[in-house]
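Project channel, design review

CF: Before we commit to the Amycolatopsis coloradensis constructs, I'd like one complete example in the thread so the newer folks can see what an input/output pair looks like. Taking Nucleoid-associated protein, YbaB/EbfC family.
RD: sounds good, go ahead.
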Amino acid sequence: MPDMDELLDQVRKQTEEVQRIQRSVEAMEVKAHSRQNEVTVVLRGDGRFTSIDIDPRAVRQYDARNLSEIVLEAVNNGLQKLAEASSAKFAPVIESAKSIEA
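CF: and here is what came back for Nucleoid-associated protein, YbaB/EbfC family:
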C-alpha cells in the first residue's frame, strides 16, 4: 500500500498533467463543414467560434431558413469534433486515474 507522500505526489503529477492538457485543448483550433461544404466554421478549444464562412453560391441558392439549418449543421459538427478531440487528449489521464483506483 503506497504511503501518503506517494499518493500526494501522484495527485500533484496528475493535476499538472490535467492543467497541461487543458492548456493544449484551449489552444486547439477545429475546422468543420456542413455536409456539402457550403458553410465552414472554425472554433477554438475553449468553445469560441473564430469564423463562420458561407459560400456565396449558398446565399443565392438557399432561403434564409435552409441556410440557417446548414449553418447550424456546420456549428454542431464543429462542436462534436471539438468534444472528440478533447476526449482524446484527456483519455490517457483518465486511464491513469483508473489504474490508481484499482
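RD: helpful, thanks. Residues 5 and 68 are 56 Å apart (CA to CA).
CF: The mean pLDDT is 89.
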